[in-house]
């Protein structure tokens, strides 16, 4: 994760960035009135050269949160400056942390575990489910109340799976009908330590309980059925929390001892593998491509997409493998290859749950049939990603069958998809970017109803496409 020390100067810039985010959200809201024009992604020549994707979104959220709970000053380099992460920054600032930009870095002056203040207004989460669920965990063991709001998409997503364990720890919630936003919550200090067995593998629920455990006396435990992304565990250890992990038969047990004292850290955020996946697929399916994606995080709980693409015959080489900030990192060299359809092992789903939409695009260009199962979780993301991708790919000319828990896709064998649209993104950034990739390998291009949602996680996505295709 990086070295841990303090002693730097900062310049205040967050208010201007939050204003930019609000302006983008205002523009995004116009989508609901059908006044935005579609954006078309046309067929591309070979993708070549070297690109660098933005910082990892999961790590960026956690770096801000843990820095806000440390006593002292933290510096973060490579922070993803997308709308979701800026929503986290704004919420933490409303609860007492000072968060400023210093050149290309970010500086966080923390308030210490137990030091969060009562926010003066509702915490606007925008489209960020990660911000919402993890901040609910932080607040659960503080004696404050908070109201959470979000955009139309986030307000449809269920929060019950987080509310349940946090309620067991003593927090109280008043959600909207169906357990969604907007909701009001009140934390309890001191909270009650629990041992919680996850009914469904979820890194967000695991992290919410562990974050609540930071300010809870005693040992708080989470038992997960399969390993999910472990950035929370890695980073909490780096900040000095007393945390242990026990691998057992069919379970993984994480224990955290509270209340914790977190010390300030300098954090280097690696490139986001979820963002790199779009370009890995694009370079695989656009003929003649030979693209290097620099500084990609390859945490073993996050690299499933690259393993599956290699199983399909993708030409992906890991160059200069190294460790950055406690996370495995490499440059990825991706060259065009004719992919083969496969049956994807459902056990790999937790390590690539956000990358299935773009994998479906790869499958649509592969030779033969690709079968995916065990993906019920995709129905409760920013959109119903199974239904949304099935409809979008069909509109672009792909052969897709939808089941309750997956898609079966018969590929073209490398022949470009006809194209078409505009496809409906449902305000989902991953649907938008996945179909943009499909457009690059199509005959006539693929139109999406709006590119605005892309700003939530990958603000320079379109610019990087232009750079790689130049």
Categorize the overall geometry.
globular
CATH class of the largest domain: Alpha Beta
Please work out how many helical segments DSSP would assign. Answer: 13
Outline the biggest β-sheet: 4 strands, mixed
Number of domains: 2
Instruction: Give the mean pLDDT.
Output: 92
CATH architecture group name of the largest domain: Alpha-beta prism
Q: What is the fold named in CATH at topology level of the largest domain?
A: UDP-n-acetylglucosamine1-carboxyvinyl-transferase, Chain
As a percent range, the share of strand residues is 25-35%
Instruction: Report low-confidence residues grouped into runs of 5 or more.
Output: 5-35
CATH superfamily of the largest domain: Enolpyruvate transferase domain
Helix content: 25-40%
For the record, give the distance between the C-alpha atoms at the N and C termini, rounded to a whole number: 35 Å
Strand order of the largest sheet: 2-15-17-16
Task: Specify Rg, calculated over alpha carbons.
Answer: 21 Å
The number of distinct β-strands equals 22
The structure class reads alpha+beta
In words, what does this structure look like?
- By secondary structure, this protein is α+β, with helices and mostly antiparallel strands.
- It folds into 2 domains: 30-54 and 270-469, Enolpyruvate transferase domain (UDP-n-acetylglucosamine1-carboxyvinyl-transferase, Chain, Alpha-beta prism); 57-261, Alpha-beta prism (UDP-n-acetylglucosamine1-carboxyvinyl-transferase, Chain).
- The chain is built from 13 helices and 22 strands.
- The chain has helices at residues 14-29, 57-69, 83-94, 129-140, 160-168, 203-213, 231-238, 273-285, 304-311, 356-364, 385-395, 429-440, 461-469; strands spanning 39-41, 48-52, 71-77, 98-102, 105-111, 123-124, 145-149, 172-176, 180-186, 195-197, 218-224, 243-248, 251-258, 266-268, 290-297, 315-324, 327-335, 369-371, 399-403, 406-410, 420-423, 446-448.
- It has a 4-stranded mixed sheet.
- It starts with 13 loop residues before the first helix and ends with a helix.
- The model is unreliable at 5-35 (pLDDT under 50).
